[in-house]
Amino acid sequence: MEVVRSVAAWRALRANWGTGVEIGFVPTMGYLHAGHLSLVQMARAAHARVVVSIFVNPLQFGPSEDLAAYPRDEARDLTLLELSGVDAVFLPSPAEMYPPDFATGVTLSGPLVERLEGARRPGHFAGVATVVTKLFGIVGPSHAYFGQKDAQQLAVVRRFVADLALPVEIVAGPIIREPDGLALSSRNVYLTPPQRAAATVLRRALAAGRFASDTGMHDAKSMLAAMRAVIAAEPLATLDYVDVVDPATFVPRDHGGPGSLLVLVAQVGKPRLLDNYLWRADGTWDTGSVAEEGHA
Ligand code: PAF
What we know:
The protein is 36% helix and 20% strand. The chain is of the alpha/beta class and 296 residues long. It is globular and about 60 Å long. Pantoate (PAF) binds next to strand 2 and helix 7.
């Protein structure tokens, strides 16, 4: 596995691989877990070469967010990627990505970036769009893999890739969960043992929303009430938001039903935890999968 830290070194490696080599790309901020590794496995199964980036992108953190404290473990990440059969890791410094004369940003408008995460984290999606566009420009993948857990980020990436006609196909990987249902996230490391136990409340709340609709209460009001009641019963969790939205636009829906997304964010101790259930257009549910034992 090659580890490259500059655009020039990446270009030299890419030239060695020859033309016409299809690249599957997994952009990450490191501190890898089984959710990231499942995306790597999907890419490994589909493409001649797999490239992973590790870059904690300052542009997508607000002034009061955890940029300095964001968990990092480069040595462990590189071991996991080597064991996963990755061909190359792109690991740039902030100065490599954003030299002093850097002056370009990618911004979107409308409900997709103004509601929910967009409202809570001003500038966040512009930071994501800018870094992902730059990473696509550097790496030149045919396919790029993103987790369903960050459903609004996934919709934002799909939006700007379509709008800017970027020649890359976006592939979504399912939410990967702990056996007790907690969605994997690098920020779960912040949870104390009692908070970790309480954090299963997100999954339980989503299940309650689904149950409400399965038992005939398809209207968003009933589904949201069912989810809110579960969160309210957990003293260590504070609801940030819960909604039933269109998964492509994040416009709220009056009713659940195929082609809708239940999104939920709650604060448990330090981290804001994100989770969702996707009611696919074909009527089946995507509620994620449990991590295989022994995975990071
Ligand atoms: O999801 C993430 O880890 C980041 O937002 C991403 C896509 C790597 C961009 O920095």
